[in-house]
Amino acid sequence: MPAWASLHRSTRRGLPLWLEIVLVLLIKLAALFFLWKTFFSHPQTKHMALPTPAVEQHLLSVPPSPSQSPPQSLLPSPALPERS
After folding, report:
1. Is the Cα dihedral 57, 62, 68, 70 positive or negative?
2. What is the dihedral of CA 57, 60, 65, 69, to 10 degrees?
3. CA 49 to chain centroid
4. pTM of the complete model
5. Is 6 exposed, middle or buried (0-12, 13-18, 19+ CB in 10 A)?
6. DSSP 26-79
7. Domain ranges of the chain
8. Which of 2, 3, 11, 65 lies at a C-alpha separation of 20 to 30 Å from 79?
9. Tens-digit pLDDT profile for residues 24-48
């Protein structure tokens, strides 16, 4: 008898497929709820609130024009003299 046939027969004695799917979905929902409560439900400290107008102004402001001079680190380095 092939190995896959015995595996197939052993799963037939377990829970019905619909019940297995429901149980897996419930476990996933519980895990997602736990992660949300742990990491996203409350700020780390009470004083982390930012004023809404300042955040809106920062996000909606126009970025500086690219015609400004680039920082020194972005400028090409001068060519080194060749040695003979």
Report:
1. positive
2. 50
3. 22
4. 0.41
5. exposed
6. HHHHHHHHHHHHHHTSS-SSGGG---HHHHHHHHHSPPPPTTSPPPGGGSPPPP
7. 15-42
8. 65
9. 999 999 999 999 998 887 766 667 7
